[in-house]
Amino acid sequence: xDWKRQTAVAGRFYSSEPATLEAQLRGWFxxxxxxxxxxVALLAPHAGYQYSGKTAASAYxxxxxxxxxxxxxxxxxxxxxxxxxxxxGQWETPLGPVxxxxxxxxxxxxxxxxxxSDRSAHLYEHAIEVHLPFLRFLNPKVKIVPxxxxxxxxxxxxxxxxxxxxxxxxxxxxxxxxxxxxxxxYISAQEAEKLxxxxxxxxxxxxxxxxYQTVSENNISMCGFIPTTIALQAAAALGASRCRLxxxxxxxxxxxxxxxxxxxxxxxxx
Length: 270
What we know:
Layout: E1 4-5, H1 18-30, E2 41-44, H2 49-60, E3 68-74, E4 83-85, E5 90-91, E6 98-100, H3 102-111, E7 116-117, H4 126-129, H5 132-138, E8 143-149, H6 154-169, E9 176-180, E10 185-187, H7 189-204, H8 208-217, H9 225-237, E11 243-250, H10 252-255, E12 261-269
Parallel strand pairs: 1-5, 2-9, 3-8, 3-9, 4-7, 6-8
Antiparallel strand pairs: 2-12, 4-8, 5-6, 10-12, 11-12
């Protein structure tokens, strides 16, 4: 079985031309202050770069990028198991391949057997792929552990987050956690900001259960709230004590249509 994942959304969500892509990334990061240290976790969006690329860059500009990054994202395709880990091989990007941290992936699946080794949930999923050019641009030697997450009960999400955090806490060099999520979808900018503020308040409070419950009770269309719940729980296990909201915006800033927007946020946790 071939565990080399080809790009699925290059040329649509972001440029498939290496020089064009690198120039875009360099342009974003050249205007941002160099990070002082590595954070425990980052929250960043996964839409097309014209809509959310600069917001994603603002998250990555807030942390140095270590040798290993665990990326959590929602399952938009409905394929595969509810907790799907791509645990070997490499992922292609226009800037070159990104290897899987196979050793760390094995440790995670051993500690959390609910993480199923799987390709199907990942093959056409965009929500991890769009982050890889940022990571590879900032650290060409970076390795990743991609995890796609479907619907989970709160208890399972919290347990998974604790398992991930406990494994990462044993690593000599701490991996970075990235949670990939967009915020409210296809409502007015005013309503999106109101609802997204409720969710982001719980993120800033480092309250994983509160985030899950707030999104569920208010029907907030934050697609990655379960990966973010898991990331917050893992960050708590790693001793995180602070979250900083870096940026909040929406697609209307690009399209001019504020009647139907998608919200985007960037945050860092340390």
